[in-house]
Amino acid sequence: MNRPAPIVVSSLLMILVMLLNLGLQSWQLAYGVNLTQLQLSYKKLGGQVQVLQDWQNLLIHAKDQPVNEQLRSVNEFFNRYLVYGEDIDVWGQADYWATPMQSLAKGKGDCVAYVISKYFALRELNVPEKQLRLIYVKARIGRLDSPIQQAHMILAYYPTPDDEPLILDNLITDIRPASRRPDLQPVFSFNSEGVFVAVAGSSAVGPGGVGRLSRWADVLQRAHTEGF
Fold first, then answer.
1. Which residues are CB-contacts of 49 (< 8 A; sequence separation ≥ 6)?
2. E strand map for 101-169
């Protein structure tokens, strides 16, 4: 069997590297992320390479989808990949807010981990920040008349400021309008703009910016360091 000449193999490798670099550059231009830094951050966390690849493929395939399909794809992806776990068991702390890379690397997290991961993924898909809110709620456990409630967090998408939001949740994978989630009682909402005075899409941001919520400000900074 004839083997390719070394110079041919070398040329092919150079072409492959060039194509990979072009793909990396186009990815970073399209999504505004530093993929190289994300890969390094993820590697340091000890996550499985295939999971990061699946996350990247999710964003590639969802890039040109209608927003409702983007919501569905992102919601289902993290509900499938992350296993629920309390912070004390996952991180050894009573209340820890993990970055998306940390949650993917661990493969588990609490409701906050689901919401933060979905928020960053949708922002990378260029869903406008003003249409996304992380909402702290009280979730009723069991029947609607149950007196048992627990602290919970969800992600809301507002088609317009006057529309009721669509709810992305790890408790129920179906994305439903807020009116079909009577088990949730909203308390306050926030995003990268700051903490809002109410949960309506038209509500204003309160004073103090993201600094009013120190754990959220810390997550934003750590995610930026990771490459977002």
1. none
2. 108-109, 132-140, 149-157, 166-168
Cα distance between the two ends of the chain: 48
| Cβ atoms 132, 123 nearer than 8 A | yes
Question: Is beta strand 132-140 parallel, antiparallel or unpaired with respect to 184-191?
Answer: antiparallel
- Domain positions in the chain: 31-226
Of residues 216, 88, 62, 106, the one with CA closest to residue 153: 216
* 217/197 Cα distance (integer angstroms): 17
In tens, the pLDDT along 2-57 reads 555 555 444 444 444 443 444 444 445 345 567 788 888 888 889 888 999 999 99
- pLDDT per position as a tens digit, 151-186: 999 999 999 999 999 999 999 999 999 999 999 999
DSSP 4: P
Q: Which helix (H) or strand (E) holds 220?
A: helix 214-226
The CATH number of domain 31-226 is 3.30.70.1290: no
Q: What's the whole-model pTM score?
A: 0.84
Provide the β-strand partners of residue 136. Answer: 153, 188
d(C-alpha 15, C-alpha 83), whole Å:
40
Both tokens assigned to 77: 């992806």
